[in-house]
Amino acid sequence: MAISHLHCLQSVRVSFPCRPSVSNNYYYGRDNFTRKSSSLVYASTNNLDRDLHLQSKVETVLDSVKWDNRGLAVAIAQNVDTGAILMQGFANREAVATTVSSRKATFYSRSRSMLWTKGETSNNFINVHDIFLDCDRDSIIYLGKPDGPTCHTGSETCYYTPVFDLLENQQDKEDKLALTTLYSLESTIAQRKGELEVPQSGKPSWTRRLLLDEKLLCSKIREEADELCRTLEDNEDKPRAASEMADVLYHAMVLLALKDVKIEEVLDILRRRFSQSGIEEKRSRNLQS
């Protein structure tokens, strides 16, 4: 999975009060906004004061964005679980307002002079969980979960061409996603797993040995987990704890590879547990069993 890092992000967020319906209008709460000219016109059905206040807050956020002379700002879509930078486009006020209402990443096409929602033709929507503004308030992040490949080429993200490879005249036949440490490790383990059927001469790699010996793998996971606990019990230093945690992660990820479980699936479960106490989560697992 590709990941890139964006800096200078402020904690300026457009949060969603509840899940609205998808429509050509803007929905905030249970009531809707319709656009007329360059302003939002409110059509109330109930709780007028509450919804007018919410409309005002949305307009205030949109007013704070430093739109360029065409009324646009850079809009970047980022995977909420992996941190992968999925794509970059442009958005105007209406695109951001539509994203807030529909929770689908919506952009403004400069070539067609119209709004477009990612996935409207491919069904590979980006389901937006939150929206962030950068420190200068001239660029936007749609933090969301993609339904499928983001790039029109079928690639997971639109970023798969390493500049340093181009400078060194290296042209790989396959796309090379921008992998950071955790996902580079996952990719390497997956590669070793794919090579299991290929005969090898010489001493096998440690990863290959673990993939071929489940008992060895499970014993190493238990051993490394115990050593991690001992860094706390024996008051060992921070580098030691970090080293042992790295061992736990590595061996656990080899097990995940054997189970065909992606680390993204694990992160998705962790995110879903953020708003749930550990006691409630364990209780729900007991009810399901």
Automatic annotation (TrEMBL):
Residues 87-160 form the Phosphoribosyl-AMP cyclohydrolase domain. GO terms for biological process: L-histidine biosynthetic process. GO terms for molecular function: ATP binding; phosphoribosyl-AMP cyclohydrolase activity; phosphoribosyl-ATP diphosphatase activity. Pathway: Amino-acid biosynthesis; L-histidine biosynthesis; L-histidine from 5-phospho-alpha-D-ribose 1-diphosphate: step 2/9; Amino-acid biosynthesis; L-histidine biosynthesis; L-histidine from 5-phospho-alpha-D-ribose 1-diphosphate: step 3/9. Gene3D superfamilies: MazG-like (1.10.287.1080), Phosphoribosyl-AMP cyclohydrolase (3.10.20.810). It holds the Pfam family PRA-PH. The keyword Nucleus does not apply. CDD domains: NTP-PPase_HisIE_like. InterPro entries: HisE, PRib-ATP_PPHydrolase-like, PRib_AMP_CycHydrolase_dom, PRib_AMP_CycHydrolase_sf. It catalyses: 1-(5-phospho-beta-D-ribosyl)-ATP + H2O = 1-(5-phospho-beta-D-ribosyl)-5'-AMP + diphosphate + H(+); 1-(5-phospho-beta-D-ribosyl)-5'-AMP + H2O = 1-(5-phospho-beta-D-ribosyl)-5-[(5-phospho-beta-D-ribosylamino)methylideneamino]imidazole-4-carboxamide. Keywords: Amino-acid biosynthesis, ATP-binding, Histidine biosynthesis, Hydrolase, Multifunctional enzyme, Nucleotide-binding. PANTHER family: HISTIDINE BIOSYNTHESIS BIFUNCTIONAL PROTEIN (PTHR42945), HISTIDINE BIOSYNTHESIS BIFUNCTIONAL PROTEIN HIS7 (PTHR42945:SF1). This is PREDICTED: bifunctional phosphoribosyl-AMP. It comes from Prunus dulcis (Almond).
